[in-house]
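Lab notebook, design round three. We kept the backbone fixed and only want residue identities now. Task for the bench partner: fill in a sequence for the structure below.
Input structure tokens:
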């Protein structure tokens, strides 16, 4: 086995062994972390150098398995993770041109998420870490989303306001530093992505709902239906279940809408406009109340084209800096777990072999 102090060099360095004009992707000083995320329905592994350089980021989607059920079937998800975890890790290492021997640590998501899915990732990370004698790092999934923007060239400084909008979460945090997280509000019922997925199922558009509603909305009239917006005064909390019910009632009263493309586009656009109005208004209110100058979006719904457009518009008006992850880093991926894992590693926060995943895991 390679001495753990002897770090890998780039293929450029090893092949050419001469001064190169190009900066090497991995240098002798790089800290290499293998990230793993199996929190929900995607199996993902990634190699990240120094918490900021993505060398590989492989995501194996299970959408095809779950789409016929209109949502994720937890038992099927965990079984598929078992089949995919090793091939996905191998692919991530191969794409980075490295091996498990080259890794200094394995960062794994230990919650929140589906317990059967999380168990697969955590079990794998602990076993591989033990076999290679390298530390395992436990990362909260939400922390991963928050730090996804740290993988972009433009990185936010602290403090910043963080809106996490995904299939499982819709939360607003003040991030004062690494490990200093102050929750301002969260959804009281459905997450924004969950609302997208449920409305998509109602409209017969399949799973996941976000991307298809996003696309259809571009061709629809956002004012065609007056769906409710739950602004919840004097609170940073959110609520999307009333909106979902309003869409459901509209369709029940007018069953012909689901067979009519133009009505579908208008419903999609009107629903999306209601979601985006609430998210933008809440963030704007937090900017004013907290006097914060930086805003970071993350999670699957932050890939939404209308949300990105409207958030940019508001941020420009308010003269605040807005940080949006690239769309591949919005949805679940293991690079974000490795990025957050890097900060745990340098703080000496290492997990033991008794690490157990948790379906419910508040961010502290
Ligand atoms: O972050 P993520 O991959 O998984 C969770 O942690 O939940 O988010 C998945 C969610 C799904 O609900 C999906 O419908 C939604 O993100 N999503 C979108 C878009 N792309 C994915 N929602 C709106 N617009 C999109 N373009
Ligand atoms: Zn997620």
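Proposed sequence:
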């Amino acid at each position: 086995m390679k001495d753990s102090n002897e770090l890998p060099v780039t293929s450029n360095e090893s092949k050419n062994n001469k001064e190169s004009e190009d900066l090497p992707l991995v240098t002798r000083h790089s800290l290499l972390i293998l990230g793993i995320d199996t929190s929900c329905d995607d199996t993902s592994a990634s190699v990240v150098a120094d918490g900021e350089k993505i060398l590989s980021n492989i995501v194996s989607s299970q959408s095809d398995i779950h789409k016929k059920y209109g949502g994720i079937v937890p038992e099927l998800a965990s079984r598929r993770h078992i089949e995919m975890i090793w091939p996905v890790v191998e692919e991530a290492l191969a794409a980075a041109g490295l091996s498990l021997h080259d890794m200094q640590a394995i960062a794994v998501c230990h919650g929140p998420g589906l317990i059967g899915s999380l168990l697969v990732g955590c079990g794998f990370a602990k076993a591989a870490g033990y076999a290679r004698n390298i530390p395992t790092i436990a990362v909260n999934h939400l922390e991963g989303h928050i730090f996804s923007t740290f993988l972009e060239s433009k990185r936010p400084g602290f403090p910043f306001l963080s809106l996490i909008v995904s299939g499982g979460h819709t939360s607003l945090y003040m991030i004062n530093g690494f490990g200093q997280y102050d929750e301002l509000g969260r959804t009281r019922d459905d997450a924004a992505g969950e609302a997208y997925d449920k409305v998509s199922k109602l409209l017969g558009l399949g799973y996941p709902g976000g991307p298809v509603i996003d696309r259809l909305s571009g061709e629809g009239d956002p004012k065609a239906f007056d769906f409710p917006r739950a602004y919840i005064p004097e609170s940073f909390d959110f609520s999307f279940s009333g909106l979902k019910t309003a869409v459901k009632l509209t369709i029940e009263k007018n069953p012909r809408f689901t067979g009519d493309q133009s009505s579908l586009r208008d419903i999609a656009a009107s629903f999306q406009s209601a979601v985006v109005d609430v998210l933008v208004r809440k963030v704007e209110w937090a900017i004013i109340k907290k006097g914060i100058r930086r805003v970071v979006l993350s999670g699957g719904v932050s890939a939404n084209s209308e949300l990105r457009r409207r958030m940019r518009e508001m941020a420009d008006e308010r003269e605040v800096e807005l940080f949006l992850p690239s769309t591949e880093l919005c949805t679940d991926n293991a690079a974000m777990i490795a990025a957050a894992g890097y900060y745990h590693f340098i703080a000496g926060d290492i997990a033991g072999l008794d690490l157990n995943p948790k379906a419910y895991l508040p961010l502290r």
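Keep this in mind before ordering anything: The CA atoms of residues 31 and 63 lie 33 Å apart.
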